[in-house]
Amino acid sequence: MTLPAYARRGWALRPVPPGIAVFRQGRRVAATGDLGALLAALGPAAPDTERVGMLAAHCLGAVPPAPAPARPVAYVCSPYAPRPGETVAQHTLWAQAVARLAYDEGFWPCAPHLYAPQWLDDADPAERADGLRWGLAQLRGAAVVYVFTPDGRPSPGMAAELDQAAELDLPLRLVTYAEVAASAGRLPGWAALTRKGA
């Protein structure tokens, strides 16, 4: 068993209710229930002060501040495959804008159709089916589904996502084109698409 560096140098920490005792070469250096006093007793010359302090904090039951609460997940449901007159670039930016909107509203966006096509071929039916299955698996962890379709008609992939969202009784957040445009203003490439009439 490998001893921590501070133990190899002769330091030891032992619980002594209601606090902790610090020993150096078998001699008691300090005993306290106050972490600040303990660290002060160790002094800056103590070896591995940070590690000793962390161990002391653990022994004293000091709990670090809780991390910020995790954002709930918002699943982004928007078209990927373009219809006539549309492009994948437009659909990608729409999905990015919806994801940005969800983030701005306090959620962590999950947009599988932005991620999976980076290594799956959407034109290959088997790979597309794998991507859709994976996306539906991600949907199970969502708290809400953000839905955007420019013409009000869901694509076949979106229809499958909406069916599963209904089975899971997930709330839907319908996103308007105006919201997408407002959210997308900060995304690279949006201005070029709007000039083309997206």
Strand order of the largest sheet: 5-4-6-7
Please report the first level of CATH classification, the CATH class of the largest domain: Alpha Beta
Q: Please trace the helix and strand order, writing H or E for each element.
A: HEEEHHEHEHHEHEHH
**Percent of residues in beta strands?**
15-25%
- The unreliable regions are 1-8
DSSP summary, beta strand count: 7
Q: What is the averaged pLDDT score?
A: 78
End-to-end C-alpha gap: 65 Å
Task: Report the CATH architecture of the largest domain.
Answer: 3-Layer(aba) Sandwich
Gyration radius (Cα, Å) is 28 Å
Tell me about the biggest sheet? 4 strands, parallel
Shape: elongated
Number of domains: 2
Helix content: 40-55%
SS-based class: alpha/beta
Q: Would you tell me which CATH topology of the largest domain applies?
A: Rossmann fold
Q: In DSSP terms, counting alpha (H) and pi (I) runs of 4 or more, how many helices? A: 9
Question: What would you say this structure looks like, in words?
Answer:
- By secondary structure, the chain is an alpha/beta fold.
- The chain folds into two domains: 5-60, no CATH class; 73-195, Rossmann fold (3-Layer(aba) Sandwich).
- Helices cover 43% and strands 17% of the residues.
- It has helices at residues 5-8, 35-42, 49-60, 88-104, 112-115, 125-139, 156-167, 177-184, 190-195, and strands spanning 11-16, 19-24, 27-32, 73-77, 108-110, 144-147, 172-174.
- The strands form two sheets. The protein has a four-stranded parallel β-sheet, sandwiched between helices. Strands 1-2-3 form a three-stranded antiparallel β-sheet.
- Strand 2 and strand 3 form a beta hairpin.
- Mean pLDDT is 78; it is low at 1-8.
